[in-house]
Design a protein that fits this description.
The protein is of the alpha/beta class and 336 residues long. The chain is 30% helix and 23% strand. It contains twelve helices and 16 strands. The chain has helices at residues 19-22, 49-56, 122-126, 131-141, 159-171, 185-191, 203-210, 225-234, 256-260, 271-277, 280-295, 312-319; strands at 7-13, 23-29, 37-46, 67-68, 74-80, 92-94, 105-109, 114-115, 150-153, 174-179, 195-198, 218-221, 240-243, 265-268, 303-307, 327-330. Strands 3, 5, 6, 7, 8, 15 and 16 form a seven-stranded mixed sheet that branches. The chain has a six-stranded parallel sheet with strand order 11-10-9-12-13-14, with helices on both faces. It has a three-stranded antiparallel sheet with strand order 2-1-4. Helix 8 (225-234) links the parallel strand 12 (218-221) and strand 13 (240-243). Helix 4 (131-141) packs across helix 5 (159-171) and helix 7 (203-210) packs across helix 8 (225-234). It is globular.
Length: 336
């Protein structure tokens, strides 16, 4: 039996600003366990771009302050309240949006977690809720794709981009992947990319050459600016360009001809909103596939380094470096 836990070490945000300055390693309260609730020990949580944007105060929805940071992670159930099956103790669960995963311990409603199959590796499970889920939804939600169809994306070496490559390969779809560094080419090809191109002039033409003259049915944009226009220019008539990020900090300017003469569709995607609006069957289908692929090694996100919560400033600085080879993960339970 776990003794009562009333406080925890956590990364607390009290004001928005530069991430390394406003992320504070301090104490947070753990409320008493109520009916229908569980106490979890957080085992792993990645540092995502969304976390950094929240620290900066530049995200789509910002928490009330003070708040514990961390949009996704994995915890192990230590205690359960009345009305929760005691057999859940010891299981690993995906933690939901709004929980604040950068903490050692926390209490939340049992209905808001999802049990992780034992076959799924811990660190991979901790990174499934955001990037792979974003890739999955964009590939399945906007355009019906058949085996052999082409998808084109920029930011292909990002967490979402790598998931797009792996999921598309598992489904039998082909990908053209646009990056900014030539040294990424062999790595992405080995992962399953069908073509890798560098950002630059004549991007639309080079995309069509890479596909053998076949126009992609779906484009995915996380950069904006000229990169997004290059992708849009390569798409077939009536195709869709989905924007899910703005890494290039440049707006998407749509030529009138793309709308008038080619009937291109321009959409946005935010996985936080998808979770709010999706029905339970859709969410079940998403995680059934993601869990199966992660357990089988089909879906894999590399990890560059792990940090304890007490090293949050070093971890954030590392996460902000360009040219990383994998995600930065926090291991909150290592501070216990």
């Amino acid at each position: 039996m776990v003794s009562n836990i009333s406080s925890t070490r956590a990364v607390v945000l009290s004001e928005f600003g530069l991430p390394v300055q406003v992320a504070k390693y301090s104490d947070a309260l753990v409320p008493p366990l109520q009916e229908g609730e569980i106490l979890v020990e957080v085992e792993a949580s990645p540092i995502n771009p969304a976390d950094l944007n929240i620290l900066e105060g530049k995200y789509g929805v910002l928490p009330s302050l003070p708040s514990v940071v961390g949009v996704e992670g994995v915890g192990r159930v230590l205690q359960v309240g009345n009305g929760v099956d005691p057999r859940k103790i010891g299981t690993r669960v995906l933690l939901p949006h709004g929980f604040g995963c950068w903490r050692q311990y926390g209490v939340l409603a049992d209905r808001n977690v999802r049990v992780i199959p034992q076959e799924v590796p811990l660190l991979q499970a901790a990174m499934l809720r955001i990037n792979p889920a974003t890739a999955y939804c964009m590939l399945h939600q906007f355009t019906p794709l058949q085996a052999g169809n082409w998808v084109v994306q920029n930011a292909a070496n990002s967490g979402v981009g790598r998931s797009v490559i792996q999921i598309a390969k598992a489904r039998g779809w082909r990908t053209v992947n646009v990056v900014r560094r030539v040294e990424l080419t062999e790595e992405l090809l080995a992962m399953g990319a069908d073509a890798v191109l560098l950002e630059g002039e004549d991007l639309s033409k080079r995309i069509r050459e890479a596909t053998g003259g076949t126009s992609p049915k779906l484009g995915l944009n996380a950069v904006g600016g000229e990169s997004a226009l290059g992708i849009a220019g390569s798409l077939e008539e009536g195709a869709t360009l989905v924007t899910y990020g703005a890494m290039g900090r440049q707006p998407l300017r749509i030529p009138n001809g793309f709308l008038l003469f080619r009937d291109l569709r321009f959409r946005g995607f935010w996985v936080s909103r998808w979770y709010q609006n999706a029905n339970p069957e859709e969410v079940d289908r998403l995680f059934d596939d993601l869990f199966a692929w992660a357990a089988g090694g089909v879906l894999f996100t590399p990890v560059e380094q792990e940090y304890p919560l007490s090293a949050i400033h070093e971890a954030i600085e590392h996460a902000q470096r360009s040219g990383r080879a994998g995600k930065i993960l926090l291991r909150p339970s290592s501070n216990a």
